[in-house]
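Dear colleague,

Following up on Tuesday's group meeting, I ran the structure prediction for the two-component complex that the binding team flagged. I've pasted the input sequences exactly as they went in, so you can double-check that nothing got truncated or mislabelled along the way. The structure tokens for the whole assembly follow below. Feel free to forward this to whoever is handling the docking comparison.

Inputs:
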Amino acid sequence: MPNAAPIIHTSAPETDQAIDRTVPDFPVAQSSDEDNYFQTNTAPQYLDELRKETSEFIRFHQATGKKVVLVTSGGTTVPLENNTVRFIDNFSAGTRGATSAEYFLESGYAVIFLHREFSLLPYSRHYSHTTNCFLDYMAEIDGKIEINPKYSKSMLEIYQKYQHARDQNLLLVLPFTTVNQYLFSLKVISKELHQLQTKALFYLAAAVSDFFLPMSKLPEHKIQAQDHNGGKLVVNLDPVPKFLRRLVDSWAPGAMITSFKLETDENILLKKANQALDRYCHQLVIGNLLQTRKKEIVFVKKEGEHPVVWYRLTDEELANGVEIESLIIPNVIKEHEEWIRLHK
Amino acid sequence: MPNAAPIIHTSAPETDQAIDRTVPDFPVAQSSDEDNYFQTNTAPQYLDELRKETSEFIRFHQATGKKVVLVTSGGTTVPLENNTVRFIDNFSAGTRGATSAEYFLESGYAVIFLHREFSLLPYSRHYSHTTNCFLDYMAEIDGKIEINPKYSKSMLEIYQKYQHARDQNLLLVLPFTTVNQYLFSLKVISKELHQLQTKALFYLAAAVSDFFLPMSKLPEHKIQAQDHNGGKLVVNLDPVPKFLRRLVDSWAPGAMITSFKLETDENILLKKANQALDRYCHQLVIGNLLQTRKKEIVFVKKEGEHPVVWYRLTDEELANGVEIESLIIPNVIKEHEEWIRLHK
């Protein structure tokens, strides 16, 4: 069969001569890679509005004195057409991000929630992605529609937390869909968060594509089959520059930065986490495996020999609905407090 | 720049010699293509359960004497890995399918709703994909959570319709995610619907991928960048066999079949619709453009010279929330009644 190994690109494109091939992962982005990205790809039209909202939110919390965390959540898309019918997506319902945001709010943080549109949101997540329809939470009682009494107690508690976050202006919800929207938004938000120095925390849980189709390569219309011999489709994607290093170096130096590493092969998880720390010099990588991500995660820290700490739920805790974010967030906050203390 | 036209596959794979290159679109699937698909790809584990539910639903409505429509809705995914982190998706929130299902139910049809999991559902669609959170429909009144009085009247009406469909067993909701799950499900449901002969209607609104990665090509784990020189990713996909013809010929001959054609280039829409009719010999293609799909659609019929009828909403109707499905469904039903009459 031809193309039996469809994922392997067998000829080295000339453009990549600058790449250090000694690291068995993406080359570290040359500083020019990111600049070039923002020069050759178009900013989303709403970017100024997003900057304004973010700036007001941060100024507000400079006054309240709260620590502010940027939680990114959900998967980015890579459109394969300009009028997008087809796109490449990253698996993520946004559970980790939406759940973590709630725990940060309950721990006294103000939260900027940069999420994939229609992925899970803090609080509403408890109801929105259930396979049984939203209307199943309702009931008709004396000709009036009500919350089904079965659910009303727990829903009231969640509703009150949600209202508190809204009333106190503790939660700024910003959406993205494409990886391009995500990258431009991340840059803008980071530069605003820079004002908070060490009080800013980055919690980058979004599943960001490692690949993208430069706008210069995007076909205008839906890909037509006659474009391909034999109706085959070959999609040829460029690597997304690694913006994490730029975030650490120049967008928001002083902030504490936590990134995630999701793998499916446990044999490479720690190696990849350590590589990320060595490369980007940020403070913390939280590693997890797709298969067990709700039961166990691992902290790999920058300091010294990259100490490794696993956090696990027992099967009993899992069965009782304990969420692993109840272990993650307090420990991330400990790291953040230590970070603030060290940089006083 | 290398790969400047990333979507074009420049060498004709040997496997495609049988293909008729005179038609400027996908080759007609050789009968062996579909058989080969079902032999070389694994059926979803839940398929027998799905067959059982479908069979009971259809037997129930053989008794009620209702016409039964299969509405397919939402986009299919093409996993790029076996432990799926990345996948190719088709743009679709499921609006057309979910909305159409409601109009079919209100017109007395029983509906099998084969939909992309977490895409819009009949009735709950009015609330689930709003960007303002589901909890925004609630209110705390005297320490009790209630539906916000602003929304309760319209929500009650929708709830009652939803309950009616449930109580009368008029709606069978079946999910899929991957194109493989969709194809196996379509085959099973079609063979069950065959019992209803002309009383069965197919309304295939799902955005089904034209391409897939055969299981034999799927990498087990998350694609690692070191697999690619320079961190580029090349995805090489095979065409999905065209099952519509098999549906017409042998799965459910006698049923009326309506398919959709979504394009972004209006200059090719009618050509593609006519090609589909000529190739698959089904009864009706409903054409629409991504940009205007909520405002205008076109019927292209099999009979004679493929008569073309446009249905459009005025801007005023659009502004008043009139849904174009209120024009589509009654006219599809007219075609179905004619189909039944002709085959008495």
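Chain A touches chain B through 97 residues (CB under 8 Å).

Cheers,
M.
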